[in-house]
Amino acid sequence: MCDGPRLAPCLVFVCTTVATETLVGVEVVTTGLEVQPDATAAWYDLLSDTERSRANRFASGRDRRRYIVARARLRQLLGERLRVPAAAVELSSGPNGKPALAGRFACSDLRFNTSHCEDVAAYAFAQGREVGIDIERLRVMSDADTLASRFFSDGERAAYEALPPAGRPLGFFESWTRKEAFIKALGEGLDHPFDDIDTRQWQMMRFAPAPGFVGALVIERRPAWQQQ
Ligand SMILES: CC(C)(COP(=O)(O)OP(=O)(O)OC[C@H]1O[C@@H](n2cnc3c(N)ncnc32)[C@H](O)[C@@H]1OP(=O)(O)O)[C@@H](O)C(=O)NCCC(=O)NCCS
Fold first, then answer.
1. CATH number at residue 67
2. Most Cβ neighbours (<10 Å): which of 16, 55, 58, 170?
3. 227 within domain boundaries
């Protein structure tokens, strides 16, 4: 059962099931986060007390609305997959903040991750395999070179520095979202040593969440015995 239909739709809503040769069984959903202020109450009703407290701490009304819609939409999407109302979904946070199913849903095989940037949110779902997702709006960042030299691996940095200036913003965000998606699949923080990640255990793909945005999705590989 899903309590979605009574809610006002977001301005942008795209549902994409990613089922390529290499990434079978991962679902990616992207949602626009802008709703009219008077439509926010219905979304707010779906949140837990903890989420409502967090929503109420946002100083900016726009950021508060975006948080409410992003979180309520996550609950809706999880509720559809678990066949329970959105408000009944129980969530907890890992040590570095990665949300996970909790309570009576803790034993579910459903894995998920979310990312939001400005007025767009993206959600990834998979059965029994960890996922990480990251989206960013493509833009010129004055500190991109500094961030690349601080966070990119030697290979990534060399590839980034070899790009012509016009190609650097895209090159930067493709590497950045991939790195963040890996970190988020692991449930770690940005200080996680990237060289430690055994990339043979993970698959990665890029996707376009919305015009002007770049996205990366990382999913745990199936063990060999589960592969067809
Ligand atoms: C997780 C992290 C990579 C998110 O990056 P971001 O680009 O700023 O934000 P995104 O929109 O892509 O992702 C945010 C969402 O990812 C999820 N998330 C938060 N922490 C996460 C983690 N460690 N792993 C996976 N997912 C996480 C949440 O759903 C969050 O949404 P919410 O804030 O509405 O709850 C970054 O914030 C980070 O490094 N966090 C870890 C903090 C940390 O290391 N803490 C150490 C303990 S004090």
1. 3.90.470.20
2. 55
3. no
**How far does the centroid of ligand 1 lie from the alpha carbon of residue 85, in Å?**
25
As for ligand 1, residues whose beta carbon falls within 6 Å of it are 70, 96-99, 113-116, 134, 180, 183-184, 187-190
The string of pLDDT tens digits covering residues 174-210 is 999 999 999 999 998 877 766 666 777 899 999 999 9
Which of 75, 114, 125 has the most ligand 1 atoms within 8 A of CB, as the residue to mutate? 114
Does the model's pTM come out above 0.90? no
Domain boundaries, position 196 = 15-222
* Nearest-angstrom CA–CA distance, 104 and 97: 20
Looking at the domain assignment, is residue 71 inside a domain?
Answer: yes
104 CA from centroid of ligand 1 (Å) = 24
Kindly report, residue by residue over 95-135, the tens digit of the pLDDT: 899 999 999 999 999 999 999 999 999 999 999 999 999 99
